[in-house]
Design goal:
three-stranded antiparallel sheet; mainly alpha; 17 helices; single chain; 2 domains
């Protein structure tokens, strides 16, 4: 009799478990049908998306920047290991010489730079061609795009060595916009790649401002270009909305049309994964609208929840959605900080000394002084007794660590400001 009760108890538990998950499945499937009812229309609207933007230095060039980039990148050679090593060493340590293999690769592929410069000044940028491209592969040529950014740095340093600073600065600004355009592709992975490309250009300008003495004309043009880059500031909302739309498309095909897009061993998890995608991308999107100091605690909490997910499909979809937030704050801190540094340099050329405070820069040098995106307060600025300056963001710990490069986002000095 006791055994019968045990068996009956087990059966009840199993029935309740199955019933609960079956009801959840029906609810989620119904919800998916409802959410996907206008899916085709949403995809059609998304495919019409294009970004208008003013040129950085020249007149606008008619056409689509993405198409120009794609045609050019298609002709760029894939890096061999020795070429890649040589280029990396040179990029990250300007004191090193370019290796023979890296030099030969650069000479064979530098033709691409003119096309990239043309794309940078194109009237529009149209993102991915369709949602299927987004789902089945990473945006094309991302590895080559990173390589091209480094090729542009090599040329920029050559221009510097010939005292052709205006052309070098123009090239470095072009790298930033090239990276920003990859951000506009709409996916988390392409946004992260775009950010890394943009940082390459930013670091070169930062180095040039600290290690050399650009002319008043150079600084004026640089400030104007950076103002355009700041005014066309990128929104993570676009990235999160595109990701949600992409996963909606994937899960709908797999769940309601019987198409095996997902690996079979993961198909069972798709319902819960859809719940997770909607919830976590929605939360990340809300946090992306806040200054970092307001979102920091919620970011930590949200990240803990993501790390605790047991659904393997959710774990496949969700990594990166919070990393991109933090990376974006740093990207913006660099961009705004370099803009301020250029204004400080221009003030010194005009008046013979650095300004006593950042407030002096506006509106005489720049319309307004941007705030630190981490703290939403002014950047930390110090005019040292020896005539050098310090300029930095408090970084993600939100503390003034005295310009410690491990804790703060240091704009100047990298070594010693001139």
């Amino acid at each position: 009799m006791k055994l019968l009760y045990v068996v009956a108890g087990i059966l009840i538990v199993v029935i309740v478990f199955i019933g609960y998950h079956f009801i959840k499945y029906l609810r989620a499937t119904s919800w998916m049908y409802e959410l996907s009812a206008q899916l085709e229309l949403k995809i059609q609207d998304w495919e019409k998306k294009e970004y208008k933007r003013p040129p950085l230095f020249s007149q606008s060039i008619p056409g689509d920047a993405r198409a120009i980039y794609q045609e050019a990148l298609d002709k760029v050679e894939k890096l061999k290991p020795d070429e890649e090593t040589g280029i990396k060493e040179y990029i990250y340590d300007p004191t090193k010489l370019l290796s023979p293999a890296a030099r030969a690769y650069y000479e064979r592929n530098k033709f691409v730079i003119e096309a990239i410069k043309k794309g940078v000044n194109a009237e529009t940028y149209k993102p991915l061609l369709n949602i299927s491209d987004f789902l089945h592969s990473v945006p094309p040529y991302m590895g080559k795009a990173r390589t091209v950014a480094k090729i542009m740095v090599i040329m920029g340093r050559e221009l510097e060595s010939e005292n052709r600073f205006p052309e070098a600065l123009e090239l470095y600004c072009s790298i930033i916009r090239f990276g920003n355009d990859y951000f506009r592709e709409g996916a988390v992975v392409s946004a992260l790649v775009g950010m890394s490309i943009s940082i390459v250009g930013q670091k070169e300008i930062q180095r040039l401002l600290i290690d050399t003495k650009p002319s008043e004309q150079d600084l004026t043009r640089l400030i104007s270009a950076f103002k355009i880059l700041l005014d066309s500031n990128l929104s993570l909302q676009e990235v999160y909305n595109t990701e949600k739309l992409g996963w909606e498309f994937l899960i709908k095909l797999n769940s309601t049309e019987g198409k095996e897009i997902l690996p079979k061993h993961l198909s069972f998890y798709r319902i819960q994964a859809w719940d997770d995608v909607i919830f976590f991308y929605g939360e990340a999107e809300k946090l992306s609208l806040l200054p970092y100091y307001q979102s920091k605690d919620e970011l930590i909490t949200l990240n803990t929840k993501i790390e605790a997910l047991t659904n393997p499909l959710s774990s496949l979809f969700l990594p990166g959605i919070l990393k991109i937030l933090k990376t974006n704050y740093k990207l913006q801190a660099n961009l705004r900080g370099i803009y301020i540094l250029a204004a400080l340099k221009l003030h010194k050329l005009k008046h013979g000394n650095y300004s006593v405070s950042l407030e002096e820069l506006a509106p005489a040098i720049i319309p307004q002084v941007p705030l630190d995106p981490f703290s939403d307060k002014p950047f930390i600025y110090k005019l040292n007794a020896d005539g050098t300056i310090m300029l930095y963001s408090v970084g993600d710990d939100l503390k003034d660590d005295g310009g410690d490069e491990k804790e703060d986002v240091v704009i100047s000095p990298m070594e010693k400001a001139r």
